[in-house]
Amino acid sequence: MATGEAITSDSQTASQQLPNHKVKVKKAGQRACNEKDAKGKFCGGHLKRWFYAKDAVEHECGDIESAWGPDAEVYRCENCKALYLPHPGETKANVAGEGMISVFGLTLPPKENKSS
């Protein structure tokens, strides 16, 4: 499964829990974890893109790679380690948006020398 190929069936994926991981589906534009702890408070940790194929602990477990392949788009909470699959309507990979073209990266012609 390539990076651009998101898991298409939300209900099937959300119901398909992995044995060692809590799996949820991100809401549109969601960047913070909404998992509740034992006291009922939200975790609030940042969701970061997780490259699980390079993670040593996950490499021993192997649940995710066997279920979704080596290159699936998965986000993980930095606090509670809950896994989030991308929202099916979101196509952009960068949660910060498109951004602007930098003028500092452009090649400009040299300035003219003034002779006196």
Provide an overview of this structure.
It is a single chain. The chain is an alpha+beta fold and 116 residues long. It has one domain (1-116). 16% of the residues lie in helices and 10% in strands. It contains 3 helices and 4 strands. It has helices at residues 10-15, 56-61, 63-68; strands at residues 23-25, 47-49, 75-77, 83-85. Strands 1-4-3-2 form a 4-stranded mixed sheet. The longest helix has 6 residues, at 10-15. Mean pLDDT is 75; it is low at 1-15.
Task: Name the strands of the widest sheet in spatial order.
Answer: 1-4-3-2
Largest sheet data: 4 strands, mixed
Number of strands: 4
What is the count of distinct domains?
1
Order of helices and strands: HEEHHEE
Overall shape: it is elongated
User: Would you identify the regions where 5 or more consecutive residues have pLDDT less than 50?
Assistant: 1-15
Give the structure's gist in a few sentences.
This protein has 116 residues and is α+β, with helices and mostly antiparallel strands.
Descriptive keywords:
3 helices, elongated, 116 residues, 4-stranded mixed sheet, alpha+beta, 4 strands, single chain
Spell out the blueprint of helices and strands.
Layout: H1 10-15, E1 23-25, E2 47-49, H2 56-61, H3 63-68, E3 75-77, E4 83-85
Parallel strand pairs: 1-4
Antiparallel strand pairs: 2-3, 3-4
